[in-house]
Specification:
Elements lengths: L1 E4 L2 E4 L4 E8 L8 E7 L5 E7 L7 E7 L1 H9 L1
Length: 75
């Protein structure tokens, strides 16, 4: 997936996956996944995808600061 945020392209196919968290089973309306990526330039972003009853309804990309990414990795 690709998304441009503040004139910067975030692309899951080009970035390096740091960690993936899955909650629930496939097809579960409350289930979701979060995948933290790091770009070649050192920027972090979170790819999210979830069911209708989850915190993430569908696919999205959200940019993250290095500090927030570090905190997310420590969870």
């Amino acid at each position: 997936m690709q998304k441009t945020i503040c004139k910067r392209l975030y692309d899951t196919a080009q970035a390096e996956l740091q960690k993936k968290v899955t909650c629930g089973a496939y097809g579960d309306p409350a289930g979701y996944e979060e995948s933290l990526f790091r770009t070649e330039d050192g920027y972090f972003f979170l790819y999210v995808n979830g069911g209708e009853a989850s915190p993430y309804k569908g696919e999205d990309i959200r940019r993250m600061s290095e500090k927030r990414a570090s905190e997310w990795l420590a969870q």
